[in-house]
Amino acid sequence: MTKLEPSRFLLEKLSAEHQNGTWVGLELLPVAGEILALGGDEDDYERWVLSSNLWHSYTCSTGDSVVAQERSRAGAWFRAVRSPNNWNLEDELTGLATRISAYNKWPNARTAHRDRAVALAFVKFCSDHNCYTRTLSSYELAKHTAGISQRSVHRALMALLDLGLLREVQRADKRTSARSTRRYRVFLRWGVTTRDSRNTCKSSLSQELQPPHDVWAKGSAYKGGPTGLGLGAQRVWEVLTDEPTTVRQVSEVTGMKTGSVRRYLKILADNCLAGVKPGAPGEPTLYFRVDTPLDAVAEMRGISGVVETRHNAISGRQHNNRLAYPGTYWRPSA
Predict the structure, then answer these.
(1) pLDDT for the residue numbered 329
(2) Residue 175 pLDDT more than 70?
(3) What sign does the dihedral 173-176-179-181 (CA atoms) show?
(4) Do residues 34 and 13 lie in contact, with contact meaning Cβ atoms separated by under 8 Å?
(5) What is the rounded CA–CA span in Å between residue 190 and residue 144?
(6) Does residue 268 sit within a domain?
(7) Where are the alpha helices (H) located in 60-201, listed in sequence order?
(8) Structural domain boundaries enclosing 155
(9) CA 256, CA 253: separation in Å to the nearest integer?
(10) Are 93 and 127 in contact (CB under 8 A)?
C-alpha cells in the first residue's frame, strides 16, 4: 500500500481548530476531498482525521454523542466520494427552503402558513449558523418569525417532526428538566423526488430565506392594535408575478382554497401590493404583483418595528428565565 503524502492544504485543514457551532462535516469535507485528490482511501481519511487537532478540538467541545460524531465523520467521506467538490451545505439548505416554499400539501390546512413559516425560519437559522443539527428552544426560534408566539412555534415544531422535515436527536448533555431545549436535525433531502432532485418554484426563490417583515406580522400578540397582513397574505404575495394570473391558478400553486386566495388578494390589493385587471366578459379577474416597498406599507399601517418589539420581548423573557431557573441552563446570562 502506497503511503499517502499529505499536501500543505491538507495539513493546514487538519491542524485547524474546530469552530464551535459549526457542523464538523463542513470542516471535514475539504479534508476528505483533498485525500481523494491525493489518491488516498477511506483508511487514510480515518487515520489522518482521528489523529488531527481538528477532530480532537471537536470531540473535546461538542455535546454530540459518540454515535453522532462517527456519523458526521463517515458522512463527510461519503459525500466527498459521491459528489467530489460539489456538495455544499448552503446549497442544500437553500434547495430545501425552495422546496418548503413551493410545498402546497400541508397535512393541516389551518396551520399550514404557521408550519411553513416556522420551517423556513428554522432553515434560515441553520443557514446563518452553518449547521443542520441544532439544539434550539421554541423561544429562540420565535424571535425569527413574524410575530408567531412561542407556543405556536412549539406546536409547529411538533408538526414538522411528524412531517419528517425535522428529526429529533437525543441530547448527550440533556438535564432532567421540563425547560430543556430539544435538539433537531433538518432532513436535507425532504421533498426531493427521483424525477426532480431540485424541485424549485420560480416565484418562491426570492423569498424563502428572507428575514420576517413587519408587514406579515399578525396574531394574538397584537390584538387591540394595528396588525400586519398575516402569513397567508405573504404566501399569496410570494407567488404573484408581473404576469397576470387567476385566483384558481394561485390556489393551485399555494394549495389554498379559492375563497381564501380571493380574500388575501383583496387584502393585498387594498394595501397596494397587488393589482387587479378585470377580465373580459365571461373571463375571470386577473391579479398581478405590485412591488410597493414593504417598509412603506408597514409605516402606512402603523406597525413599523413590531417584529423587533416582539423579538426584544422574547429576549427579555429568556433573560428572566435564566435568572429564575439557573440550574436548567448551561450558561446563565450575565
Answers:
(1) 59
(2) no
(3) positive
(4) yes
(5) 22
(6) yes
(7) 66-82, 89-102, 112-128, 138-142, 150-163
(8) 89-186
(9) 8
(10) yes
CATH code at 284? Answer: 1.10.10.10
Retrieve residue 117's grid coordinates.
Answer: 413559516
Q: Say whether pLDDT at 173 is over 60.
A: no
Give the type of residue at 234.
Q
23-59 in b/e form (b: 16+ CB < 10 A) is bbbbbbbbbbbbbbeeebeeebbeebbeebebbebbe
Q: In which residue are the cell numbers 425532504 written?
A: 190
Q: Report which residue type is found at 326.
A: P
Q: CA-to-CA distance for 170 and 159, rounded, in angstroms?
A: 18
Pairing assessment for the beta strands 133-136 and 166-169 based on DSSP bridges: unpaired
Domain boundary among 167, 186, 205: 186
Burial class (CB in 10 A: 0-12, 13-18, 19+), 323: exposed
- Lowest mean pLDDT, pick from 41-45, 169-173, 274-278: 169-173
pLDDT at residue number 292:
92
Structural domains counted in the chain: 3
Does 157 map to a domain? yes
Distance between CA atoms of 166 and 66, rounded to whole angstroms? 21
Prediction pTM value: 0.68
